[in-house]
Amino acid sequence: MADNWVETTAGELRHWAGERGEALDEQGARLLLDLAREELGLAGPDELTPEGLRALLLEVFPEAVVAGADEVPSVLDTLRGVVAFLRGTGAVSEPAAAALEAEIERIAPEFAAVVAETDTAEREAAAEVVAGLMQADGIALDDQEAVDEWVREFEALPEDERYARTEEYLRQTEELVVPPVRLAPQGELAAAVRRSKLTEQVLALAAWAGKRPLSEHDQLSEDDAEDAARALGLDVPRRHGQVEDEAGLERLWWAAVEAKVITTEDGVAGPGPALDGLESDDDAAVLDAWLPLFDSVVVPEHDPEDGLDALELVQNELTGVLIHLYEQEDPTAPQALLDALLDHVGENYDLSDENAMSTLVKDAFFLELGVLEEWGVIEPAGGGRALTPLGVWAVRQLLLTDGFVAPVVGDLSGASAADLVEGLVWHRADTAEEEIVGWLAAHDAKDAAADLLDVMRTGGPGARNLAAAVLHRIGPEAAPVVRAAQGHPLVSPYAALWLNAIGDPSGRELGRDEYLWVFVDTVAGMLETAEPAEAVDAAIADAPPGAEMRAMIDELWRTDHADVAEVLDALGEHHPDKVTAKAARTAAYKARSAHT
To answer: Does pTM top 0.90 for this prediction?
Structure first.
């Protein structure tokens, strides 16, 4: 069992304070000592220096501990008590204790500001989660009475249930992510809107409607509907196979009404406020007016309880087809789209005659593909179908409305290093490369290196791995900044590798312990975003083979890394070699015992 000096020191500290009748936050002191051990790599309290104290309070504590601004005085008092104990017991010299005390007072205002900023950010994040939970329950955030009632009911739930609901919401939120896309310029998108058959038909319908009288339910009369269909060239319904679109005019009418291009009030149709936008020369106005039209026609929400024909069923599922296209890097064959749709229909609909309905769904699907092409939303490409630039923009807008994270290639060039690293997680290799190149071009090399090193100090393994990869793209001009960061235990091995790679005299090959630590850190980073089996496959691709790998695993459990047990668990569960997997499971048990 590894020597844990924190337990010994905490016990001595409690005894020391008790003898003097001094109040001391024992739990708080234990937390600070534990952070010093785990995050700063101290082998004992006597290794605490003013520099380490600064890192502990300004970097480690805000990242690792949830604390309110009102707790700052207590934290500082606890730390003062620890230093007094170290002086009183002779663990540190009088000059060293005085230097630590002076550093506490020097950084106290900065520590208070950092905690206050972190506290505010955490409160804002918590508020966003609560708002998301409310919206998921159908609560309108501008309905204060409903909000208050929801809060009362949520707070009345047992703590375990509140926690479970929050965890489930966060899990679902993490799934609402789509790959990054490239957006066309606004002028190009607006030109596509003006060319769209959807725009043409809706404008023609609005011109035909004028200020026409409506039926008692503010709908078109049967005769007027027939007249409108003739005026728009829809009197002969579209057809594919056995499916005929007899409701084409009705679909356009309700989309125009929903999008406020046409109004229906007091028994009379009229031009709506969005009509001017749809006819505008202003590109932004055209896009703003067209998007609700697109939303209405591709999200019709036909009620299944009223019974759906094949065409209505396909129209209800169009968003799934469009999102599928949005997520693909290459064009998709229509048959592949149809197969995915049929699988979805089979799983989610109770069909009385599945074979007959499948044929009708196929015909309806190809009919709708043709309509989407007419509207300029999809296009033939590479033997399949792909979204047009207008389709990409429109689908992304709908995804954003539904709470998806929908990155755009190029958005990270002006981001902070922390935001860059966070954003790169959602990118494919090609677009990640583009983002990194753009970010480096927009930042001074030394400043970029300093910011990346800060991410490596304060972030988790995944962030550290990505930041280190970006750091390796920076040239020798950043060497002074990297050399200065070598003292931090979380940065030291990566800094040594970088300096060695550029031929700097202070660079070196990693020692065995450092190599093992970096291996654990790398796999732990992979486990943050990949399935364990995928992470293990990637990790062992460049790892030593056979007996050499087993010998390495036998050493890994001693590695002073917070995630070593989790990494060994993954290796034990997913390593293809049974003997190696068993060795990893045994090592995981040893790691947990050593860190208990």
So the answer is: no
